[in-house]
Design goal:
By secondary structure, the chain is mainly beta. It has helices at residues 21-24, 27-30, and strands at residues 9-20, 35-42, 52-62, 71-75, 81-88, 94-106.
Length: 116
């Protein structure tokens, strides 16, 4: 559990099309075996501390003739941003994916004494 001290909490959210590999024959659509792609998200304003970030699939388009194997997560979360990590494997053919994200964390207040 992450407990935030103080009284100012910032919430940021967004939606990001991660890829459209069916258009140009990209590796998620044409490849085999383990595949991974990362997209960096920069927050509009930095948090005072490292926020909690949740990411989820909001759109996925896959080939129905193959198994839909997908994993989505976050990595390298900092006060300034984070990476969305999408993985697939085997013979899965992923045409395109959109991810939605939500970040919640402490933000500075004008009355704060910043010692950083």
């Amino acid at each position: 559990m992450q407990i935030f001290d103080g009284h100012r909490l910032g919430i940021a959210q967004g939606s990001l099309l991660l890829f459209s590999d069916y258009k140009d024959g990209g590796v998620m659509w044409t490849g085999q075996g383990p595949r991974e792609m990362r997209r960096h998200v920069a927050f509009a304003e930095a948090y005072r501390g490292v926020p909690v970030v949740q990411v989820s699939l909001s759109m996925w388009d896959i080939d129905a003739a193959h198994n839909g194997r997908m994993d989505i997560s976050t990595d390298a979360v900092t006060r300034e941003g984070f990476d969305i990590v999408f993985r697939t494997w085997g013979d899965s053919r992923v045409a395109r994916v959109r991810a939605d994200w939500l970040a919640i964390g402490p933000v500075a207040h004008a009355d704060d004494l910043m010692l950083d």
